[in-house]
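Dissemination and training. As part of the outreach component of the grant, students in the summer workshop were shown how a complex can be specified as a set of sequence lines and then modelled as a single object. The example used during the hands-on session is reproduced here so that future cohorts can follow it. Participants entered these lines:
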Amino acid sequence: MSESTRPALAGFQPERVEDPTLINLQDYEFLAAERLTPGALAYYTGGANDERTVADNRAAFGRRRIVPRVLRDVSHVDPSVEILGRRWPWPIWIAPTAFHKLAHPDGEVATARAAAARGITMVLSTSASTDLAEVAAVGGPRWFQVYLLADPGARLAHVERAVAAGYEALVLTVDLPRVGRRERDIRVGFTVPPEVSVPNIAAAAGLPLADGLNVAFADHMTWDDVTWLAGFGLPVIVKGILHPDDARLAIEHGASAVVVSNHGGRQLDAAIASLDALPAVVEAVDRRVAVLMDGGVRRGTDALIALALGATAVGIGRPVLWGLAVNGEAGVGHVLDLLTAELELAMALAGAPSLTDLGAEYVI
Amino acid sequence: MSESTRPALAGFQPERVEDPTLINLQDYEFLAAERLTPGALAYYTGGANDERTVADNRAAFGRRRIVPRVLRDVSHVDPSVEILGRRWPWPIWIAPTAFHKLAHPDGEVATARAAAARGITMVLSTSASTDLAEVAAVGGPRWFQVYLLADPGARLAHVERAVAAGYEALVLTVDLPRVGRRERDIRVGFTVPPEVSVPNIAAAAGLPLADGLNVAFADHMTWDDVTWLAGFGLPVIVKGILHPDDARLAIEHGASAVVVSNHGGRQLDAAIASLDALPAVVEAVDRRVAVLMDGGVRRGTDALIALALGATAVGIGRPVLWGLAVNGEAGVGHVLDLLTAELELAMALAGAPSLTDLGAEYVI
Amino acid sequence: MSESTRPALAGFQPERVEDPTLINLQDYEFLAAERLTPGALAYYTGGANDERTVADNRAAFGRRRIVPRVLRDVSHVDPSVEILGRRWPWPIWIAPTAFHKLAHPDGEVATARAAAARGITMVLSTSASTDLAEVAAVGGPRWFQVYLLADPGARLAHVERAVAAGYEALVLTVDLPRVGRRERDIRVGFTVPPEVSVPNIAAAAGLPLADGLNVAFADHMTWDDVTWLAGFGLPVIVKGILHPDDARLAIEHGASAVVVSNHGGRQLDAAIASLDALPAVVEAVDRRVAVLMDGGVRRGTDALIALALGATAVGIGRPVLWGLAVNGEAGVGHVLDLLTAELELAMALAGAPSLTDLGAEYVI
Amino acid sequence: MSESTRPALAGFQPERVEDPTLINLQDYEFLAAERLTPGALAYYTGGANDERTVADNRAAFGRRRIVPRVLRDVSHVDPSVEILGRRWPWPIWIAPTAFHKLAHPDGEVATARAAAARGITMVLSTSASTDLAEVAAVGGPRWFQVYLLADPGARLAHVERAVAAGYEALVLTVDLPRVGRRERDIRVGFTVPPEVSVPNIAAAAGLPLADGLNVAFADHMTWDDVTWLAGFGLPVIVKGILHPDDARLAIEHGASAVVVSNHGGRQLDAAIASLDALPAVVEAVDRRVAVLMDGGVRRGTDALIALALGATAVGIGRPVLWGLAVNGEAGVGHVLDLLTAELELAMALAGAPSLTDLGAEYVI
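and obtained this result:
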């Protein structure tokens, strides 16, 4: 049972919390920055070049304001949404990020457990530091993020392993034909430490675990690859769309959903903020498929703004890593709980008892 | 007799003041911050989450400029306005805020005395730390702010007590279906100190004084509640309107006035600034009822801008508390005198000898 | 002979200057701040309330950019302009400011000498600390700024003295029906020191010199006063216009020119920046009379922007006081030379050999 | 062979670099500031007056965002462009700047070698500190920047020397009818040190080497001079165009290309940023001639933005000097390699395998 049926308290005393220094996602970011190695911090925090897009992803939310409605019955708030035939309890998903073991020894398994306990879909990265089967064994809703490997055999094996492990959808990342230049990594001389590997890549390539990091990704990727991926029988979600025409093309090539994303500002610096790109994509998609987004969501009100502007659900990437770094599975769980509670409260205060009540007229 | 009939001095020597460090409302804010306990300061100052809306309430005034008129006869300035059948000497009212005894032992009585001495309407909060009858005994124009209590009997008793005590209007706050998350309170571990209570809630609920703080508010509130409240025979003012359609609905459900407000940024963070929301509400209301506003008014020129954009009167909340904290009744009085003198001067300098001279063409 | 006929140097070595710390008007401001008493500095620097308009007068220039033209023959630049039948060598005038003896013992005489030497029109303030006849004796083009004194006899005598002393035009300041609240003055407890007086006011009122500071100004001023002032046979310039309708009214009431001005931000805080108000006034005036402006001009490019937007000439107030404070007549002269040289260079670099070449298409 | 055919790596380890403190152009700026004399630093860094335009040249890029396309085949990126009949490997050129020997004893020869090794066109300045024949002897594509000397004979000789030395085009700078006032130079008392001269000017004027610095430039320059210059049989490029009408006039007078430029903010302060001026010039030119630009390009994404908005190629001025100051020819080469690599990556990540794929729809 969600908190939405709890009667409102008089509210004269503030909420009691375990730790008053960890009450929002930014707190987790600050604390994680102390806990992580300089290399891991640079890798997680950094974006491409001047990190204009990293900053703009956040700033884009600051440029919007919500016009709430009042005196609607919000004693019960329903933040659930149906996506690809499954009802999600929250319009929130965990965006794929690499190497969770850089943040915590429990790695992706900890993240998956926290997500599964809340019915939240985790998108496991090709660059995960945990075998996809091990993560699948946690249970819970899960999608698999696909980078196309350069070698055709490895490429095929990679996708087949994900399908075999029961991942429910394939998320094709299309904004990494090459790797962006993340200057923080260069400054600190970041290297993946020996205890962290990419077992899924290694397995697909038939190589020893330690060699996965050297496997090349395809530098040649076109819309035909979407069609090819759709041939595996799972829904294909195209992640990294910023132009409305690309959203149209994605649907034409069989995508079941798109993700408006600029890879957290890690690829093309000066790329448009995800939130700024969202409305045109929503209009182009015209409700034919789900439009997810990620980039800069740190508050329930951020989520509400994106949802009102037409996002079907919003993903969070880095905050999950901060939670993981601070406190493993419990940290991820707390990050998710903070964000979902904020969203639920924001819906109530905005006078929107369900997501279908939200619309672009809520945002200016 | 107001200062408006005083002939202008040559003005070569600045005004003589008692204390040159207390010459505007911001001065009171700075000094109050030193006088209050950390908990009271957090409670009064804080807003929801990142306090974007708190800041934007102020910034919205900074984004406007006044285009004054000249050579109009402003030797006599009349800042009075008629609201709900009573002529107010100033288009200024005291917005409801909780627990005045947190700021000063004299609490709401001190505030009421300062207001009454100037003919300014005070809106007493449901969460006042003084019994409503004791405040009423001060005399002076007074409205009562209503939170609906969860228990039907208590809810009825609460309103009946206010009616019986001679409050002239009921101000229904509609932006608190739940309490916003005020992170400052959580950070400092604010608790209402034992010497501060909410006697009106306790009395309505038939509980000992100390138990009032635990009485639940209704989490289910709709437009029917406006109709219900209007049944008590007093004018009902709906406070917390930001969307023009809600202003229309308020009038349809019997409201005698609306207050454009975001609860001082304490409820839905990222909500639109009150001033930014004002013009659309004014247009929707189309002079059928009075449109009050609060949020960010700290200067006479702020008041003038809001009035020119169609506000019938502007409320101040926190500045009253700063005055109270600094110097009790005299502090509140000085805060009011500073603001009214600034407004009167601003009207003269803008070439508007009366409020009806002001219009949207004064503001860009 | 102006510098405009000097062939351009190769420019590989920068200009040789006497003092490299005094090469623009801002340098003078910084140095003057060290030289003045705290009271005089507050009085000169300060604006009303939060000084939003003071800041915005400057910022308004920063919001514009010039689109220069090239390959026009600018070997000879003619910055002269005809105003009220006289050809000015520069489209620059000295705005009226009070008490030049606060800045330097030579007071307005020093200012007048520097202006006269350059053929620049000085507008002497009613609140000058020097007798208007003494200033007139310096020679040079001069206008007189008029505040209406409260006493009718003194009012008449005041204007008659100016007319008798050969001032060529009367500048009626209309934005001071009351004195703005300049908080800096109050903070520092500014008082006019005993050695500084307002001899013109005292003389008009028939009072001893020291009593001039206590003479009241009219608090009742209307368009009829413009008509009255025009009756003295001199051109009347209405100073303090920000609304285009007031510019139209000024012309209808006999004004020979208007000055777009907000009194340097000293009267109505939050008033529109002079530069922002300029275009609508220019449009309303439609070339019937000259449109002067003041407020925020500190650079030749500022002047060029205002001129391109339709100002006939731009006034400077505070910079003259900085020059006076730093170095008396020579300081004022240097300030004027710096500004005129900057303007002449800006015209050359913008491809506008004369002021008639400038137009709104130069500015975005 | 360019790097564009290198298969993308997995990218889990950041690029290995020789010096992690020199990985972008800003790093070179910071280090050069330590290496240069105060005078040289002031001369290179400074702009006119308040340096508004210097700052705005950069800020204009920050105001734009790129909307990238995805799933286009970018395995091979072709950044080449044809300009005046020659195919450039990159749409990048070296803008003319004076006195390279101020930065490094090897001066313009070092710059020319770095440029020639990469097939990048260097525009040698009239104010070069190296004889144009010595620079020509380096080989590589080269244009010559022309200031018109005041003396007609010297003017002719100057151009003839450049033609004779095999420069392929003449770049006429039209935004310097007079020298802008660069206040930094005045503050630090910059003088060209004795070991630095302007041999090309001296030779044209038939003067000893040391006297070149005193040769006057023409202060009278019109469109006829473009026609005159075109008579030498080389393509003439008009540099310093900001207004679209001037671009049209340039073409009418025989220009083979124009350069949108404000002289790096060193001439008319408050002039429009080059990038802001670009679109209107591109529209006016309507593909009749090439439209180059310079001003504020520091990143590959800056270049991409300008190219998408219609620039045929972008020039860099100061960054070349930073490279020269830090490490002579190798420093210039590294600066060029960093920028070209960034551009090539930006094209790949923007989904534009060739420059003809770029268009204004990429930029918002």
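The first helix of chain C runs from residue 25 to 35. Students were then asked to discuss how this feature might be tested experimentally.
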